[in-house]
Amino acid sequence: METPISSFVKERRKMFNLTQVDLAEKSGVRLRFVRDLEQGKPTLRLDKVNQVLALFGHEVGAVPSDRQQ
């Protein structure tokens, strides 16, 4: 099962003992953006999401969607 980006970011942030403020500063985004990202806000700029993910060696990519439900 795939991990939503919001959960991934929050788990990685905690794994590296970073506060939301630390993550915002290190990735070059605003604290509000980190909070929105971790809360799963559905409309976020992908370039900024990638700025945060780059800190953990990841980036947003196209993945197959599972349409069979």
Helix content percent band: 40-55%
The coarse silhouette is globular
* Main β sheet profile: none
- The Cα radius of gyration reads 12 Å
Count of separate DSSP helical elements: 4
DSSP summary, beta strand count: 0
Strand residues, percent: under 5%
The helix/strand order is: HHHH
Describe, in plain words, how this protein is organized in 3D:
Helix 2 crosses helix 3 and helix 2 crosses helix 4. The model has no long low-confidence stretch (mean pLDDT 91). Helices cover 52% and strands 0% of the residues. It is an all-alpha fold. It is globular. It has four helices and no strands. The longest helix has 11 residues.
Quickly describe the structure.
The chain contains four helices and no strands.
SSE topology sketch:
Blueprint: H1 5-15, H2 20-27, H3 31-38, H4 46-54
Helix pairs in contact: 2-3, 2-4
Defining key terms:
single chain; 69 residues
